[in-house]
Design goal:
It comes from Rhodococcus gannanensis. This protein has 16 helices and three strands. The chain has a three-stranded antiparallel sheet with strand order 1-2-3. The structure holds acetyl coenzyme *A (ACO) and oxaloacetate ion (OAA). Acetyl coenzyme *A binds next to loops.
Length: 374
């Protein structure tokens, strides 16, 4: 290459393979997604979220004894220190719950004397602690915004049930718990998405796991990534009634505006996780009398497909499903964090085990070199 030749620019790193991973495989041609070799649909049908977390971190599904131990450790780590709960309580009412979650993880790093211990075993333990305590933080913040006191974690309840109980003061019907748990499993991991890549970049400098997760949370917050599940529901509320949906969608497309919850960088013919989450959403809607949102969902999906061929991504069905479960819209992306913490940390551990500083190149397009005062 001569000095003047312009190298090929891969804007947004689209299509660039930057490293290997043994954690998950996305195959857009067949719309498939596997975690450690297991189809995500299979995991969603047969496994608990705790089993999937163990799988992502350890490479294999747990035996009965391993699961028992793992579940015990998770339950033992759910309590948030008084200082952490006080920090959450002091966060401005106007801030987004993702800011609370990001701050809480940063605080956990600051108070961990072993923050710099990046050994894989130490990082697996820290990952489990973060996974266990995050629901306590998210639920306490959810209740605070309703003027309610936090509910302590209940070690007799599974991960999903306990979170729902801490938010709403009771465990909902099993249909709702199942749909919620399915969403956690589907959200857990998705190869080199933007937030996971951010976590890997931080890890590649030999920084600590809390810093990497904090960066990942900040990355997930954006509406082109995890924040889309909230945007979907804001849009649906703006649409109001199913009869307005087609015109609303056509207007957005005519103005060349992005419709949140549609499209994907990797899947061009549909997101592998949508059929499973769509079914979970339909189950929740049937159970809660949410037919109107199902009709609106179908009209939006059909209109978008007819006009552009662009298909929904996972954030499209999770938005209305979480809404019907009773969550405030601003809690949707923090729930994504509660799940994706497992995938992020699996990648942080993998990056640490085979590290190379991540530092791409750029093509300079500014003014040529000049002298001060010339
Ligand atoms: C869990 C997740 O993070 S899933 C993703 C969640 N994000 C969203 O739902 C946000 C909405 N979707 C989008 O913005 C995009 O589809 C992305 C960012 C997710 C992926 O997009 P990219 O691969 O970068 O493709 P890009 O944004 O360039 O889109 C390609 C074309 O499809 C169009 N397109 C893609 N998605 C959408 C959409 N949601 N609404 C309208 N048009 C869209 C673009 O306008 C563009 O059209 P053009 O070629 O005429 O300019
Ligand atoms: O893979 C991506 O780019 C975004 C996504 O679907 C995810 O992170 O789950």
């Amino acid at each position: 290459m001569t000095d003047t030749a312009i190298p090929t620019i891969y804007k947004g790193l689209a299509g660039v393979v930057v490293d290997t991973t043994a954690i998950s495989k996305v195959v857009p041609e067949t719309n498939s997604l596997t975690y450690r070799g297991y189809a995500v649909q299979d995991l969603a049908e047969h496994c608990s979220f705790e089993q999937v977390a163990f799988l992502l971190w350890n490479g294999e599904l747990p035996t009965e004894t391993e699961l028992e131990q793992f579940v015990q450790q998770e339950r033992a780590n759910r309590r948030a220190d008084r200082s952490l709960l006080q920090l959450v309580a002091k966060m401005p009412d106007s801030c987004h719950p993702m800011d609370v979650v990001r701050t809480a993880i940063s605080y956990l790093g600051a108070e961990d004397p072993q923050e710099w211990d990046n050994d894989a075993k130490a990082n697996r333990e820290k990952s489990l602690r973060m996974m266990a305590v995050l629901p306590t933080i998210v639920a306490a913040d959810h209740r605070r915004r309703h003027g309610q006191d936090p509910i302590a974690p209940d070690s007799n309840l599974g991960f999903a049930e306990n979170f729902l109980n801490m938010c709403f003061g009771k465990v909902p019907d099993k249909e709702i718990v199942k749909a919620f748990e399915v969403s956690l499993i589907l959200y857990a991991e998705h190869s080199f998405n933007a937030s996971t890549f951010a976590a890997r970049v931080v890890t590649s400098t030999l920084s600590d796991i809390y810093s990497a997760v904090t960066a990942a949370i900040g990355t997930l917050k954006g509406p082109l990534h995890g924040g889309a599940n909230e945007a979907v529901m804001h849009d649906m509320i703006e649409i109001g009634e199913p009869e307005n949906a087609e015109e609303w969608m056509r207007g957005k497309l005519a103005r060349k505006e992005k419709v949140m919850g549609f499209g994907h960088r990797v899947y061009k013919n549909g997101d592998s996780r949508v059929p499973t989450m769509r079914k979970a959403f339909l189950d929740v809607a049937e159970h809660t009398g949410g037919d109107k949102w199902v009709t609106m969902y179908e009209i939006l999906e059909r209109t978008m497909n007819d006009a552009t061929g662009i298909k929904p991504n996972l954030d499209f069905p999770t938005g209305p499903a979480y809404y019907l479960m009773g969550f405030d819209i601003e809690v949707f992306t923090p729930i994504f964090v509660m799940s994706r913490i497992t995938g992020w940390t699996a990648h942080i551990i993998e990056q640490g085990e085979s590290n190379a500083l991540i530092r791409p190149l750029s093509e300079y397009t500014g003014v040529p070199q000049r002298a001060v005062g010339a």
